[in-house]
Amino acid sequence: MKLSKGNKLLLLGFILVVIDQVIKVLVKTNMEIGQHFNVIGNWFQILFIENEGMAFGMKFGGSVGKFLLSFFRIGLFAALCWWISSLVRKSVGSDGTPVLLEDGAPKVPQGVLIGLTLITAGALGNIIDSLFYGLIFDYAPFMFGRVVDMLYFPIIDTYWPSWMPFVGGKEFQFFAPVFNFADSCVTVGALYLIFFQYRFFARSEESKEST
């Protein structure tokens, strides 16, 4: 049976969320917080931490901030789902064929839908942690769970030269944040849209202005 464009995107999103959750559960149930091991040398490590705030270990205003962040994530996820659904409807005609522009290009490129699906799947992956992990692992109420992070790439880990003012002798590390597969989906999807699908958004903005 041939899947529709919308169902293909749903399948992609589902697979990404499953991968994210499998990785997190394996780390959560087999490692202690702070435990780590090397995957490739010292520059790619699995380091188990739990993030109470935003992506890449950033925090946001205690318990109230945590609740607002969870609420915001849910709203963003809903908005992205609506947007993708709207674009899918615009991309396919009533006969099931792709809708094309005058120059023969698709009205909604497949890449735009895939990029937005990556972002949406990543958002959902972290929403599941925030909403349910506190209940599943019995440490916090609904909406106050912590996001599991584990991907760590300290590509450069050294010290500033002692002769440098202000920072001399202090540790310098690149790349310091610890993140997860869901964060990667959001980042890859966003960068892909910015660098490879900017024409679609520019065209949409021009269409709004002309209207």
3D architecture notes:
By secondary structure, the protein is an alpha+beta fold. The chain has one domain (7-156, 170-210). The protein is built from five helices and six strands. A four-stranded antiparallel beta sheet has the order 1-2-3-6. Helix 1 (5-30) packs parallel to helix 3 and helix 3 packs antiparallel against helix 4 (181-196). The protein is globular and about 65 Å long. The model has no long low-confidence stretch (mean pLDDT 88).
Summarize the topology.
Layout: H1 5-30, E1 36-40, E2 44-51, H2 62-91, H3 110-136, E3 147-152, E4 156-159, E5 171-174, E6 178-179, H4 181-196, H5 198-210
Antiparallel strand pairs: 1-2, 2-3, 3-6, 4-5
Helix pairs in contact: 1-3, 2-3, 3-4
Structural class: alpha+beta
Pattern of helices and strands:
HEEHHEEEEHH
Shape: globular
Strand content: 5-15%
Percent of residues in helices comes to 40-55%
Our Rg estimate from Cα atoms comes to 21 Å
User: Main β-sheet, in a few words?
Assistant: 4 strands, antiparallel
Order of neighbouring strands in the sheet with most strands: 1-2-3-6
Q: pLDDT under 50 segments (min length 5)?
A: none
Report how far apart the termini are. 40 Å
What integer is the average pLDDT?
88
Number of DSSP helical runs:
5
Count of discrete structural domains: 1
Record field, number of beta strands: 6
Question: Which characteristics define this entry?
Answer:
two-stranded antiparallel ribbon; 211 residues; 5 helices; four-stranded antiparallel β-sheet; alpha+beta; globular; 53% helix; 6 strands
